[in-house]
Amino acid sequence: MAESAAHARLVRAILSFVELEFGPIIDLSVRDDSVFPLRYERPPRVGGFVPDVYATDVPTTVTIIGEAKTTSDLERERSRSQISAFLAHLAHMPKGVFVLSVPLVAGATARRIVAAAQQSLPLSATRIVILDGIPG
């Protein structure tokens, strides 16, 4: 299925965040699940799902999973399952970062869904970033 323009903007916001926040990490490998991923490398499956962005360095000191959700996608059960799987994976990483990119109008919903997903997981130091300044 072709990627929507809105979804592509949300993924670009994640990639921009990763570059801005983690750019100084020389050995950071960033893979995205866009139509034409860099060097044709797609992110690995995490809990049965392929995230939109997966980044890690070597040796591993940080693992970043980024997921972009349009407003209509965000409230689907599949999205909740993805978010839970990604958070569960990152809970086992020494320095995990979960970035959820949503349209401006979906910020509160995104925070509620992430908070609900975290309740079913053991306490972890995963950093949660909600990018909700993107126009829908």
Account of the protein in words:
It is a single chain. With 136 residues, this protein is an alpha/beta fold. Helix content is 36%, strand content 24%. Helix 4 links the parallel strand 4 and strand 5 (127-134). Helix 3 packs across helix 4. The longest helix has 18 residues, at 5-22.
Attribute tags:
five-stranded mixed beta sheet, about 35% helix, globular, 5 strands, about 140 residues, alpha/beta
Q: How many strands?
A: 5
Strand content: 15-25%
Kindly report the average pLDDT value: 86
Order of helices and strands: HEEEHHEHE
Radius of gyration: 14 Å
What structural class do you assign from the helix and strand content? Answer: alpha/beta
Low-confidence stretches: none
The main β sheet shows up as: 5 strands, mixed
Q: For the largest beta sheet, what order do the strands appear in spatially?
A: 1-2-3-4-5
Distance between the termini: 20 Å
Counting DSSP H or I runs of 4 or more residues, the number of helices is: 4
Molecular shape: globular
Query: Approximately how much helix is present in the residues?
Result: 25-40%
Task: Detail the topology: elements first, then pairings.
Elements: H1 5-22, E1 28-32, E2 53-57, E3 63-68, H2 71-74, H3 77-90, E4 96-103, H4 107-119, E5 127-134
Parallel strand pairs: 3-4, 4-5
Antiparallel strand pairs: 1-2, 2-3
Helix pairs in contact: 3-4
